[in-house]
């Protein structure tokens, strides 16, 4: 271990309490990017991040977009050094509903003791992505405080629309190509293998999203006056959605699997050796049976197979008591996780054709808010990936797992497509972090181990 | 025409404006009985009705129940007369959502010109049942004002829970059996055949209601982290609901049609001669194809066939934007219209078995708020029914249609079962009244013709 990194890790240990206070301060800003009521909070969070960057010696600014603002900051070491990395994170968070299931208000973070995880930080965004992005900023802070310098040049890009489809991101990358195209992107929005094993994510599923509205009668009808004779759009919607999967969990949209490659035998073997416990994974959330394709392993389903999910459904009367209504329309939000080679627009078109095929007489289908991103994968033999893997191994005392991820991080595809830039996906989240759910948490060991890991990776990347 | 009825009809004509003002005043009270926030409004509406009864010379009181209160009033003629009738109506109304589809606030009634109907009263409850119940009170008022007396003894019972399943009604009937058991019940909660043809309803469908919750994972999950592997309860719910009907619209619950009698040939012929225009009926609400059993007429579907309808559905994220969640549960409200001989408890039990059969692995079904009422039918040759039919024919210049109704009026079954009392179902609503929907209306011709009709019926019933 170099003298430098020893000092940096010492600095992180000394500053633990203040680092946690900074994370709490950021969580307290309810920066929900899908909800217009919280747009001012998103601006507040952006200002907060830019200010923190300035405090550790970055040149930083908040940049306007058509949506939530971007934060950009940069700092070069005194002695010019390669590479110049671009760090990406997002300061926006998911909505908090159902609020009633939170043990305390989601934007009042608390430390809590957890049998499996030790001390955890509970609050919306604790893991996704406020805790994660601060692991990197804390590593930079410690480097500067301990040594007066960074080992590599760093540009930081923090987005505020990751949880709402990133509509401003691509135009922003295109408009700021020169400033943002660096040798490598570091993205901290993924997970560890388990709480004591680091991971680098080398495959990410893509995502296609749409909202389907099934329309029937021209107005809400009384089910006594019309029931039996008039089309019920909820029935029509259920008829469509129930056909999405066959009995074995296979998606029934025509051509859905056409572009999906079979997993190479060596990849399958590597995943097998990870010793993933599918029974425990499902058992943790009260389930016993895999719901997707029955002839695949759960890890394969999560990392390398596409999905069709209904994320929300609503129609008719949903208040207390009963109302004997046949509603004029019923709606569902759907998303499709995509794997390499699948094109989101093609999948959404195929879904529209599927819906058209299953429409009951008198039903009309309207699609809203359709958008998507492709899956991506990286060369596991590249020099930066190997250097980062070695740094992680040094920190955690065991090799980093090279894994896939079921979630999509659209930025990674955009970096590659628009800026020709590869990414290193290293994060410290855990499967039980409850991101997007009530009582989201981030292990203190993830937060602190994450910062220590980045400190080591920054040095390892310097050539 | 007797001198008396001539004077009574003259009195109704002279008091038109004031009668309309009274209806407006009652509509202004937002007495939504399914919504706890409106319980005080229900009490207000009950007080208002009792006070109106007192103003026209009834002894009236508001009676407490475990739910919304009952209003009971009575008045006997100076010269003892037969029969003693019990009039039933309800002062509570349906919820108003979706509020955005109302052309003006639902509890600020307005007169509006309507091409098909002339002047109409628009507001929640204008037809169901505030306008309807006031037709009877206005007839009583006119009799008393014009002649100083009523032709028969009248007890009035006004309920405040008709739109929320009438939980207090049966205990109230049982506790007040002596006061409420009269020679005949008059129920004003049904419709005319069309805007110029009166009707008496001689068949009413029953109703069974339940709420189904399908539970899956123990908490909301991230669709990227779990999608493909974990059961999605919305998918499981859609799978159940989509199986409720076959392609020809026939309900697939085992035994659902076992107790359903075929329509007698003469009834079918009488309905055929009504000249019902199914195409126009469906076309009025933007539909072209009958959704129920394809081998039955629309009128048969509405009046004499049972149904299974989904009145509401909800689960997952339903707010603006997207949230890639797999929810822990998804819910639906269902109701079944029943015909003669079907037992609501038996139907609900059969539905539970149907759900159990179609549950995907790991899904659990919970049923809430299950309740129901039987269908009823009456002898069309009875003396009071014939007398009322003659009075209606005199008022409207054409015979009253003897019809069925798709809706259920549980009180009618309760009167028969608990008090041994038959009912005469006469109402002045129209198919296009939009009851239970935004912009509910009641024709002024229904309101005024209804009051005139009751004035004549009261005389016709006196022996």
Summarize the structure.
The structure is a homodimer of 463-residue chains. With 463 residues, the first copy, chain A, is an alpha+beta fold. Chain A has helices spanning 3-14, 16-27, 39-55, 130-147, 169-175, 177-180, 223-226, 233-242, 265-273, 278-283, 298-304, 344-358, 383-396, 410-419, 444-461; strands spanning 59-63, 70-75, 84-90, 110-114, 118-122, 153-159, 184-187, 199-204, 206-215, 221-222, 307-316, 325-326, 329-338, 364-373, 376-377, 401-405, 423-426, 441-443.
3D architecture notes:
The structure is a homodimer of 463-residue chains. With 463 residues, chain A is an alpha+beta fold. Chain A has two domains: 3-204 and 375-461, Aminopeptidase, CATH 3.40.630.10; 206-260 and 306-372, Alpha-Beta Plaits (2-Layer Sandwich). Chain A is 35% helix and 22% strand. In chain A, the strands form four sheets. In chain A, strands 1, 2, 3, 6, 7, 8, 15, 16 and 17 form a nine-stranded mixed beta sheet that branches. Chain A has a four-stranded antiparallel beta sheet with strand order 11-13-9-14. In chain A, strands 4-5-18 form a three-stranded antiparallel beta sheet. The model of chain A has no long low-confidence stretch (mean pLDDT 94). Chains A and B meet through strand 10, helix 7, helix 8, helix 10 and helix 11 of A and strand 10, helix 7, helix 8, helix 10 and helix 11 of B.
